[in-house]
Amino acid sequence: MMFKLIEVLGMIAFALSGVIEARRRNMDLMGVFAISLITSFGGGTLRDILLNRRPLYWIENQELTILVLVVSFVASVTLSSKRFHVTEKTILFPDALGLGLYSASGVAIALHSGTTSFIAVIIGIISASFGSVLRDIACNEIPIIFRRGQLYATCSFFASLAFVIMRNLHVSDTYSIFVCIIITAVMRAFAVKYDVKLPL
Amino acid sequence: MMFKLIEVLGMIAFALSGVIEARRRNMDLMGVFAISLITSFGGGTLRDILLNRRPLYWIENQELTILVLVVSFVASVTLSSKRFHVTEKTILFPDALGLGLYSASGVAIALHSGTTSFIAVIIGIISASFGSVLRDIACNEIPIIFRRGQLYATCSFFASLAFVIMRNLHVSDTYSIFVCIIITAVMRAFAVKYDVKLPL
Amino acid sequence: MMFKLIEVLGMIAFALSGVIEARRRNMDLMGVFAISLITSFGGGTLRDILLNRRPLYWIENQELTILVLVVSFVASVTLSSKRFHVTEKTILFPDALGLGLYSASGVAIALHSGTTSFIAVIIGIISASFGSVLRDIACNEIPIIFRRGQLYATCSFFASLAFVIMRNLHVSDTYSIFVCIIITAVMRAFAVKYDVKLPL
Q1: For A56-66, what is the mean pLDDT?
Q2: Does pLDDT of C188 surpass 80?
Q3: What is the mean pLDDT of the segment spanning C89-109?
Q4: CA distances for B192 relative to B152, B155, C126, angstroms
Q5: Would you kindly state where each structural domain of chain B is located, as residue ranges?
Q6: pLDDT at A86 over 70
Q7: Out of A119, A142, A200, whose CB is closest to C28?
């Protein structure tokens, strides 16, 4: 139940980042739908394919797909009508939220599937970042996680690591997830504002 | 049996669109083979991975792969020798045919796997368009389904929707498939000729 | 056991090619890690997803992932500190080694899964080349296997074909693998040095 809710929130967050990115590229509604579905479900789908979990959550629960489509439609119309100026910074917050949420749920699901803590962290990073990798590849850009000075995968790594550590310390999942979101949101904000880079 | 035939026709249609695209980019024979296999089998393979159907049809039936390679070889040599002028419009017809066929078979297979009608439509669109997404990503272009004014995914959506509706009305599959092909062919032709765009 | 060793060697070879490519693009350490993991595990992962083999080898054996990360870290630091001039030719040797090794192991695993010899050759090529396809797509380049005059997939094809033939002639796997590596290394060296192209 708890993880269902997380998955839904992360999904909406990523859908919004997909809508913004698709609109910046002047795509039509079908393109917006495709990009937001890819961004929302890409990470979780790859996670489930790698761990061999079926049926896939969005095939089993069609209301998730409907929700993403509705959110994308509303966001898309709102963005168009208000002539809202959409910059790279606009997608920062929804993206950071989704990043924290998916890192946490990815780690939890991997541990539940019996992986080690180390592999769970890797799966957490994949769950959280693969949607945006697909989004950026579809838009013919070098994915944000490979770009220097974005600390994108780095944020997800710290969130995933924090979640594993808190699990081992028996911290409640609700609290852990909250910490993961704080980590990704603060780190991403710093990374973009002060142009923080990894030393290597 | 019926669906085997559809799958084969759609496969050849997509293989041709792959050959044309690869030749436009001046790839060698190995590149042509790779692109046409990806375009032919990409959508069906993703559909089967998402629905967890194994063994994959092209692994089980090697004659499908051989067929695509032979078709690609013949098409490739023909295109080269006749100095046939290959434009974006040349791939329009095989592409529209494959689009209609794969939408129909994708929907039928998804329904057979027990998905809802709504998810079956999504799977239909994925089956029909993912091969061309891979083809365009491999050629380092923004995939056609994300480009405004192509109505690519939109055609597949209407074909998939029509198939689901006709299934519920107990229309025979043969007839339904024919209707799906007409829909995609006519819509794509209009979209390209009159530069039709989605209003949003 | 034998194939485990091959998989490890091929993995390191591809990891090195990933590090070199990522460093050429001036990525940070996280980008280097991501690209080298994708290049190392991409082909084997797709092979196992297509053949439905689970759990995935790198999820089951976390030391493989740790090994790739350590190798990438060391290689990355070495490349940076020595101001080693990294050109396209630098990745030629590790890449050719990985290509031969993965072609051989891909064919062996496919045959073991019960595919025909023909499909095993296709799987061999996919196993060997898909990592580099992902690497190049992630770096927003047309994948090397689609570029004319690289003979990349062609090398893998001949290595895979040689392996299948030697299997049928009951040649020992150790010897066959050695032959596969010679084939890919010599062919790639020739292809790049004399700019050999396929006639079609």
Answers
A1: 94
A2: yes
A3: 86
A4: 10, 12, 35
A5: 2-193
A6: no
A7: A200
Both tokens of C82, joined, read 């020595």
Which chains touch B (3+ CB pairs under 8 A)? A, C
Inter-chain Cβ pairs, chain A and chain B, closer than 8 A: 65
Task: Check: pTM over 0.90? Answer yes or no.
Answer: yes
Segment among A79-93, A141-155, C97-111, C143-157 with least mean pLDDT:
A79-93
CB burial of C159-192 (b: ≥16 within 10 Å; e: otherwise) equals: bbbbbbebbeeeeebeebbebbbebbbebbeebb
Taking an 8 Å Cβ-Cβ cutoff, which residues of chain A contact chain B?
Answer: 22, 25-31, 33-35, 37, 45, 49, 54-56, 58-59, 62, 65-66, 76-77, 80, 137-140
pLDDT (mean) for C62-77:
95
At C198, the pLDDT band (50, 70, 90 cuts) reads confident
Cα torsion A149, A153, A154, A156 to 10°: value is 140
Distance CA A18, CA A95 (A): 9
Residue with tokens 């991403």: A188
Which of C116, C122, C148 is facing B31, going by the closest CB pair?
Answer: C148
Rounded to the nearest angstrom, the minimum Cα separation between B169 and chain C is 36
> How far is it, in rounded angstroms, from Cα B121 to Cα B116?
9
Closest CA to B176 of B41, B2, B8: B2
Enclosing H/E stretch for A187? helix A173-193
pLDDT at B48 over 80: yes
ipTM for this prediction: 0.90
- Looking at residue B141, the DSSP 8-state letter turns out to be S
Q: What is the distance between the alpha carbons of residues A108 and A69, in angstroms, rounded to a whole number?
A: 27
**Run of H or E including A49:** helix A29-51
Q: Distance of CA A158 to CAs A164, A194, B105, C71, Å?
A: 10, 19, 44, 22
Q: Is the C-alpha dihedral spanning C67, C72, C75, C77 positive or negative?
A: negative
- Quick: pLDDT tens for A131-179: 999 999 998 888 888 887 778 889 999 999 999 999 999 999 889 988 9
